[in-house]
Amino acid sequence: MFRRATLSATVAFLLAAALAAALAPAQVAAESGFTAVTLNLWHDQHDWPARRAVIVDTLRALAPDVILLQEVLENEGLPNQARQLADSLGCAFVFASVDPPGAAKRYGNAILTRLPILASAEVKLPPLDDWRVAAHARLALPDGRALDAYVTHLHHTDEGAAIRAEQVAGLLAFIDSTRSGGADAALLIGGDFNAEPDRPELAPVFARFTDALAVVHPDLELPAAATFGSATGTTPRRIDYLFCDGARTEPTAARVVLGAPTSDGVWGSDHCGVWARFGAAR
């Protein structure tokens, strides 16, 4: 009886050890990577409380490490939307606006995260009368690496390519002046760029960084790839992106999220979000 019990315990131990060994690589991979979402919030349009509930439910299910938000609003009757989402999701956040702190109305972009925030910065993008801003947060990944996360929202008109080009130049200069100098630091850039991938004004971004959705799904085409148009009933467009530095970080999964209304007909936003998982480049 004792010998049989000992043998059973030994077998159980060996099976547990084998299972742990099999799971270890996956655990290491998870700890060395991160997930992210970008989403244009559509500020306070079309019943924000109802849309907020849809967004919170979706983000809670996705549980991203980093959330990049655009069209974030706060005013006298509306608490900061980034703070509302951060409080609901248990995140810290960084908010950037061209409007000064204490102003009755502030509008801008935000970075929400479950990771420790090591530093943050922001910059107004040219031309200053277009009210555009980029935000940066340096985050600490569980594997000890730094993650430099950036969010922006570029000029929106079809005829505004020259303005977007100027803003792209400002964004890239901001990234170069604030990103970590560490050889293994990760980089994440996301937001609403208001231009399709083949637009010339975005060429400097695509030349330097990796478009997560396109790399993971190279054959994905419109309307499946659209991040704008579904909720508004307009021409489908892909104008929202998550980028990484392909030399240090690579996307391993990506998809469009919040691409349909709830059963009650509530859309999360007029934009879809983009979700992606990233790992260290091999």
In words, what does this structure look like?
The protein is α+β, with helices and mostly antiparallel strands and about 280 residues long. It folds into two domains: about 30 residues; about 250 residues, Deoxyribonuclease I, Chain A. It is about 30% helix and about 30% strand. The protein has six helices and twelve strands. The strands form two sheets. It has a six-stranded mixed β-sheet. The chain has a six-stranded mixed β-sheet with strand order 5-6-7-8-10-9. The longest helix is centred in the N-terminal third of the chain and has 30 residues. The N terminus is likely disordered.
Question: In short, what is this structure?
Answer:
The protein has helices at residues 2-31, 48-62, 81-89, 161-178, 203-208, 212-216; strands spanning 34-40, 66-74, 92-97, 106-113, 117-125, 132-140, 146-153, 186-192, 210-211, 240-244, 249-257, 273-280. The chain is α+β, with helices and mostly antiparallel strands.
